[in-house]
Amino acid sequence: MKIGLYFGTFNPIHIGHLIIANHMAEHANIDQVWMVVTPHNPLKKKNTLLDDYHRLQMVYLATEDFPKIKPSDIEFKLSQPNYTINTLVHLQEKYPNYEFSLIMGEDNLRSLYKWKNYEAILAHHEIYVYPRLETKGQTGEAISLEVENLTFKNHPKIHLIDAPVVEISSTFIRDNIKKGKNVQPLLPAKVWECIDHNNFYKK
Fold this sequence. Notes:
It is built from seven helices and eight strands; from the N terminus they run βαβαβαβααββββαα. It is an alpha/beta fold and 203 residues long. It has a single domain, classed as Rossmann fold. A six-stranded parallel sheet has the order 3-2-1-4-5-8, sandwiched between helices. The radius of gyration is 17 Å and the shape is globular. The termini are far apart.
């Protein structure tokens, strides 16, 4: 089985995450997308970051109706800080018959050369890249990242996927919940119910 790993804090997971995950599951050369919830790093405590298992529960609620998209808590069980290469090695040992690839935005591809053991990642794993927007210029207009200038663009393991450009921010959602604004359309219904019932992000 071919698994695409989509890493994130998912604080909270929103419809933008699901749009990307579903597009990759349907249009990239993978069978499932695992949404890997990045655990809370105690060295970088943030009051806005919910407990690991609250965020995992919301990912479960968001994906339970999508058979090709699964939540993953694999990094909860690994030593911190979490390096992608360590997670990949662990998964390959645990599931030797699975083929793991990465799903990332164009912005992350630009900084891939800074990742720990990035050469090993590229040697053994496919990477599926979705488009992102980047704000530039004095007018603050949002423009697409220059795909042509991306590092590794021509690498045989890099695949640029023509996915929808989705610019919904978890930060925007959290900030607006705190302000008492209605963000319900930006969240899967069950996730919104979970947030509202538990008063998440209101303080």
